[in-house]
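Re: the 376-residue chain
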Amino acid sequence: MSMFHLGLIINPLAGLGGTVGLKGSDGVAAQALALGAEPRAAARTRVALECLLPLVDRLEFATFAGAMGADLLAEMGFNHRVLGDLTRSESSAADTRLAVGALQEAGVALILFAGGDGTARDVCAAAMPDQPVLGIPAGVKIHSGVYAISPRAAGELAKRLVEGGLVRLASGEVRDLDEAALRDGKVAARWYGELTVPVEGHFMQQVKQAGMESEELVLVELADWLHDSWEVDVRYVFGPGSTLHGVAGNLGLSTTLLGVDVIENGALLASDVTEAQLFDLVHGYPSRLLVTAIGGQGHIIGRGNQQISPRVLRAIGLEQLRVVATKRKLATLAGRPLLVDSGDAQLDEAFPDAVRVWAGYKEELLYPLGWGVSPK
């Protein structure tokens, strides 16, 4: 059974200033503690992680030392790796940024972080644009749109992802108040950037409300999105299958139903290519790989698309892989992960724990990915 990898960062000082009337914790942690404030970030993180306890055998966390995550994970019995240590006795903004970098490098599918708007700013300063993160609200100020509505909601959303539920990705704004101005009675907020965050999709409820998803309409929407986002001089590899064939048809392109085609600048560059031809076309060129899933089975690599070989995958880069699949097709998996079987065990292990799935116009989902023995 393969493990699902999550990251955890706790800002132990988050929320200290609230109970003692300091309107926040930025730069006043020592003062808050002197006034009798008690840390709350670990307790609120515990509430989120309790949702994941039923999946403890399927999870491995990556985290920082001590109060930034390792202590709580050890206490709760979660498998975890400690990737870094504190730069001083108390955690700092620099530690948060270092932790984000270390967790990204470790390839975690989702970074959970506990704090407030100041913590979100630090995460935003270090996170790559495509790295999914999710805030556990533990601070005084929670104005940023990157936090779940409660610690339990954050835990349930992470649990949904691990179990194979449909989790949509969106951009969340990072905003923070000027605490010094706030203490003087002035309210001033700044926009600091955006983070990629998972959003509860309520998939089953949407189906009941809107009826069965129209496959044809979704293919039109996907074609429209691709048309609006073509990158100049980038080669798009279209894998086989009716989904991508339908998307290409809506773009006015005549691709092969069961073959692999290459598109550049909105035009067909090569059709029904062999593995050798495909490698020559992508080696040394900026490329993107679009594949679909086999309905009911879930394979995205290694079934019917052997032209997309290990060396082709390495030449393109696993980070450039996108799965194109309707929610209707994903529902046939009944929560089971998507699968890869490239024939190269080392490469299969290098795939992320979750992949981005294009499911509609500007609608991305984050969906679990497995290899070898599927999670039970």
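The chain has two domains: 4-201, 209-371.
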